[in-house]
Design goal:
mainly alpha; Serine Threonine Protein Phosphatase 5, Tetratricopeptide repeat; two-stranded antiparallel sheet; 12 strands
């Protein structure tokens, strides 16, 4: 039996007891068994609430941050910051590998049992559909942490991650290939989409998957796979329902990643948590890619604290984010350009910039970007992703997908650490505990 999977299953029971105790019956054998629609909604809420905040840790690996080596949290992040994955000390914050499978086990139980226990109906279908989407999303994130980026030529043989599709503790858990995991993610999205019947939850409940969030997720998956026609179609479907963007030229505009923002699609993930916020400063690289006078994101995204520039985009629940329209405009631009539809690519990119830049600067950008060829325009789209989606959990994945460049991190004492171009450390190793408990990894 795989010990790491068994441990994750045990955590499901703990999560259910702590999150939904007042709703659930405790069976004589000690299992926590949801019976009603309300019980299953409580179980799913526990799964959403325990989704890992791993993107905060990934930000430390990127070129977005400089670590505060004099801060109290420095020991937790120094080995991550220096990509010292093989010999990290015991104080290093762990990547939450088991937590992903805890979420997946919750989802698997809902998928298997909700109709047997709670019957049928729109609410049951919605909960079951969300469970499929949450399972897909957890597998997708695991894959992009612990496997190579998707490459159509090698995906069928590249080692992926363990797929967990049912609760079977005696199963011999072996990693599937990258292609197999992507196929399962897309299958779960499709099944979930057939069940979902809510297009929008009110602010405060918009951590849940909806029909729009499912299609936005599909757009991201297709983007990572380079399936440009399907990525473009998915973006167009989402934005045709609501293509609103926060207009930073208007008074009262919110941070685009605020859960109340007009462009919000789904706010589940703590992409830049309080621990990382207090332990880091914004890197000179990230600050240098903005026009600091005319890009209205600059004063909204960043502030000053004790002489350093820090993030204003994270550190609180109101800034949780998973999907929003700003990202969809950028996927649409990239997908259209890669499909040789430059007019749609340019119009998508400019639609976003119109809401982010001062008018005079925007007009100059219209002229400049309109004159670019395909190669140069693609680089502009990639750079705009870096500006627009800064500190929202995208940068590590984009570095992996767009060439795996050399990165350097340094300390005040002159020590410099380098992540080489195409460095194997762009793909994380499975945690030592997971490898010890499952030789298949």
């Amino acid at each position: 039996m795989n010990k790491i999977i068994k441990f994750a299953a045990a955590l499901v029971v703990v999560a259910l007891v702590s999150s939904c105790n007042k709703y659930l019956d405790i069976e004589p054998v000690g299992r926590v068994i949801p019976k009603t629609t309300e019980d299953f909604r409580g179980m799913l809420t526990a799964a959403y609430g325990s989704f890992p905040a791993h993107k905060s840790l990934l930000a430390v690996r990127t070129d977005e941050l400089t670590l505060d080596e004099y801060g109290t949290n420095f020991p937790a992040y120094k080995d991550i910051y220096t990509w010292n994955d093989n010999s990290a000390d015991g104080l290093t914050a762990p990547m939450q590998y088991v937590s992903f499978y805890t979420v997946i086990f919750n989802a698997n139980h809902i998928i298997a049992e909700i109709e047997k226990e709670a019957g049928n109906g729109p609410e049951v279908a919605q909960i079951k559909g969300e469970a499929y989407l949450l399972r897909a999303y957890a597998h997708f994130e695991l894959l992009n942490l612990y496997a190579k980026p998707y490459n159509a030529a090698t995906a069928a043989t590249d080692k992926g991650i363990v797929l967990s599709l049912k609760i079977d503790l005696e199963q011999n858990y072996k990693p599937s290939t990258v292609a197999e995991v992507y196929a399962q993610v897309l299958a779960d999205i499709s099944t979930g989409q057939q069940l979902l019947n809510v297009s929008k939850f009110d602010a405060g409940l918009n951590y849940r998957f909806t029909t729009r969030a499912a299609t936005a997720f599909a757009a991201r998956v297709y983007e990572f796979m380079g399936d440009w026609n399907k990525a473009l179609a998915s973006c167009q479907q989402v934005l045709s329902v609501n293509g609103d963007l926060e207009d930073l030229n208007a008074s009262g505009a919110l941070l685009p990643n605020n859960f109340r923002s007009k462009e919000n699609i789904m706010s589940m993930e703590n992409a830049f948590d309080a621990g990382i916020t207090s332990a880091s400063m914004i890197s000179s690289h990230l600050l240098g890619i903005y026009n600091q006078q005319d890009d209205l994101r600059y004063p909204l995204y960043f502030g000053r604290s004790f002489g350093s520039t820090v993030s204003l985009k994270g550190g609180s629940n109101e800034k949780k984010i998973s999907f929003r329209n700003g990202e969809l405009y950028l996927i649409q631009a990239e997908a259209a350009l890669q499909s040789d539809n430059k007019p749609v690519a340019l119009s998508s990119l400019l639609a976003l910039k119109a809401k982010r830049l001062k008018p005079v600067y925007y007009q100059a950008e219209v002229a400049r970007l309109s004159a670019l060829d395909k190669t140069a325009l693609l680089q502009e789209i990639v750079k705009e992703r870096e500006r627009e989606l800064a500190l929202e959990g995208h940068r590590w994945y984009d570095l992996r997908r767009y060439g795996q460049p050399e990165l350097e991190h340094s300390f005040d004492d002159g020590r410099t650490f380098t992540l080489q171009k195409n460095d194997p450390r762009y793909t994380l190793r499975f945690p030592a505990e997971a490898r010890a408990n499952n030789p298949n990894l």
